[in-house]
Amino acid sequence: MKQFVFKRTLSGIPTLFGMTLIGFLIIGLTPGDPIEMELRRLGVSFTAEQVEALRVEYGLDKPLIQRYFIWLLDLFRLDLGTSIASGRPVLELFKEHLPITATLSVLAFVSSLALSLVLGTITAVSQRTSVSTSLYVLTMFLVSVPSFWLALFLLAVFALGLGWFKLLQFGNAQDLILPVITLTLGNAAVMSRLVRERIIAVMSEDYIRLAITKGLSRRAILGRHVLKSILPPLITNWAISFGSLLGGSVIIENIFNLPGLGQLALQAIAERDFAILQAYLLFMGLVFFLANFAADLTNHWLMPQLKEDDHGVR
Amino acid sequence: MAYVDSAKSIPLSRATQLLRGRTTFLLGGLFLCFFITLALGGETFAPNPPNQIDLLHRLSAPSLTYPLGTDHLGRCILSRLMAGTALSLGTALTTAGLILAIALPVGLLSALCKGWVDAVLMRIADIFLAFPMLVFALAIIGYLGASLTSAVFGVALAWWPSLARLVRTLTLEAASKEYVLASRQCGQKPLSIIRRHILPQILPPLLVVLSLEMAGLLLVLSSLSFLGLGAQPPAAEWGAMLNEARPFFAERPSVVLAPGIVIIFAVLSFNLVGEGIRFQLDKRKPYRW
Fold it and tell me: A55, B50, B67, B182: most buried, per Cβ within 10 A?
């Protein structure tokens, strides 16, 4: 186990560095000189010498590689820079907006995980009932519905129609109910299709036939044999789903007007506030990286004999 | 094994049978044909000019002149939906093409050169895969500025690595065939081997996968347009129409919901076709209670 953790950490380091490099390069390659752009924005008149002096002051005259390492050092010190639009440190803005996004994604993740296991098992194991058929059609429909439409539909029914929820305002925890439901439904449908697929794969195996012929009970077969062999690919998939929840929360936060990281990023895109955008990309990348890491570790812990397969499935 | 066999031979319920396999495929195909027809001749079928503004009939209910009602500028929603088909599907198709244009060379190079080229290229793919897809697309759009072009680039850049991996796997398999080895020993040039022997093997499965990805691409691109990061008004792109109508949601929800239903059907048709193909290829016989 220790050896595996060590190896996996070691192989993760180049990826992490690559991620910071991409995060840095996107800024480094943006068209236009940042100093000139900022001066123009402030409406100050300037000469070429002044720009040059400022470039030296901000260290922009150094070669790209050197600037990358300076920036990387700052990153390790959690110095994420300052937002141009609001003049506040990016870290402070992040601390303000993180709780909403974290609550939203974690709640949606847990509930869609539970829902997808139930949906997937029912649609895979029993096929002669109208319940499982209609559930199957429902998941097919839900994976085709854009999350923003689902959100607006739920708002139309429950906020405009029934008046159970307030429209487009965030005050207390109750206002998170609809956003979580929206994220859960879409995500659970996608996840349940994989659960179904995996269960069907296992149920076609000979050893399940043997277990059935042997007279093992349903519960024993599902709990002992099926669950054990579907878990590893599912855990890998759960990490990926968590990533898509992090991305998907942008849309949901936007519709429900929740002050989360997604809204912060959208605002940053509109204001061309690159420091925030860069931090957003790196932070989400890091969370996703850790989720994948945790999935790999869990898989190894569950089944040490499993060969590691470079987490290549997406 | 008599017990097992008798269990297998129990017929599927009629409803399930109808929903699976050929019917699914045909239904999806029918929807797709409908959308393709609309895309090719959307504006000629439209009852009204899609950009004709009629301020006297803002947000009106469905009528004979405006079968689905009008939006906040009095434009005919049905006509705009029909006219927008070409743009919405075309964008997804362009993105798919762009993804293929990146993934194909990368996957081929990686599989055929092996060694350090393979290691480096797959490392790069790993790094791109390390970001959540939508987050990465957002970052790219952020730097390029919000427009349909940057949405296409953003999505393509976030999406290519998984396809490049697939190209690599398929190519490795294709290149290990004996006639490919033989033609190499006969002194065929690498490029002509790729063109004559490898592409014909890997393109069919690749195109199938890519057409299945269209459902996902449509969803992502319309989401981006909905956020105002893709197609910009007054373009009649479905997601952008939803975005434009949002301020009037409380006043008339149907203005917002109608374009969404078209998106759902377009995505559903790709998903149905995909499900049909998968069902046809699936030879497994799982035990079911």
Answer: B50
